[in-house]
Design brief:
By secondary structure, this protein is mainly alpha-helical. The protein is 67% helix and 12% strand. The longest helix is centred in the middle third of the chain and has 31 residues.
C-alpha cells in the first residue's frame, strides 16, 4: 500500500474493483448522505471493524488461554466433553 502524509496523519491508498466503486458512487448519489466516496468507505470500514471487534477479542482471549499450561488442560477438558479439569 502506498502511504501519503497529510496534515491529519498518515494515509494509505488502496485499490477496489471498478464495479464496487461504481456501486458506492451510486449509493452516494442516490442517498446524498456522504459527501465523498472516502467518507462512505471510511464509515463502512469502521462499522465492519466494530462489528467484529468482540469476535476478535474473544479469539485473542482464547489464544492467550491456550498458551498457558492451564489453558491446554482446559482445552483438552473441553474437547473430552468434561465440565471440569
Amino acid at each position: 500500500m502506498k502511504e501519503e502524509r497529510k496534515g491529519r496523519g498518515t494515509f494509505r491508498t488502496i485499490s477496489l474493483p471498478a464495479p464496487l466503486v461504481d456501486a458506492v458512487e451510486k449509493v452516494i448519489k442516490e442517498l446524498q448522505y456522504w459527501p465523498t466516496k472516502t467518507d462512505f468507505i471510511r464509515e463502512s470500514v469502521i462499522e465492519k471493524l466494530e462489528r467484529y471487534k468482540e469476535e476478535l477479542e474473544t479469539k485473542k482471549h482464547w489464544r492467550e488461554i491456550n498458551t498457558s499450561n492451564n489453558g491446554r488442560m482446559l482445552a483438552a477438558s473441553i474437547r473430552r466433553g468434561s465440565s471440569h479439569i
